[in-house]
Specification:
Helices cover 0% and strands 34% of the residues. The chain has 138 residues and is mostly beta strands. Strand 7 (97-100) and strand 8 form a beta hairpin.
Length: 138
């Protein structure tokens, strides 16, 4: 079966996308289609980080040598991934709790409820806004 990603004991899991996804973005469940899309903010339906690029079926988007995939592999906890901190938010310090943000990015969980927390910052120097760094997904 071409374009199929195996589901291993600790992931990644494969999902079809309802919107364009870029590898490295946090993704959430799209409640109206049963597919996934980049997170739109601090949401309780974040399921992990996309490990590859994907576009919705039928969009016809072309890569250098082929049509882009319609499926995305999603890494979920426990795993350590590289995420981008939202530009308009607060920088993350080493050990800060992390929540999803718009455009599949992340931000500091200042007073989140437990269902919104997606991980903890594990970058020793912290992560500045707009920069990337290590986050351990829960």
């Amino acid at each position: 079966m071409p374009g199929s990603f195996p589901v291993l004991q600790l992931g990644p899991a494969t999902y079809e996308v309802s919107a364009t996804v870029t590898g490295g973005q946090l993704v959430m469940v799209d409640g109206s289609t049963g597919k996934v899309k980049p997170t739109t903010g601090a949401v309780a339906t974040c399921i992990g980080m996309a490990t590859n690029d994907a576009v919705p079926a039928g969009s016809g988007s072309q890569l250098n040598y082929a049509t882009a995939r319609k499926e995305v592999a999603v890494a979920y906890g426990p795993s350590e991934v590289i995420l981008t901190v939202a530009s308009g938010g607060t920088a993350l310090a080493f050990g800060d709790l992390v929540v999803a943000a718009a455009n599949g990015q992340c931000s500091k969980g200042t007073t989140p409820t437990y269902d919104l927390i997606v991980g903890r910052c594990t970058e020793p120097g912290g992560i500045a806004t707009g920069a990337t760094g290590r986050v351990r997904l829960f």
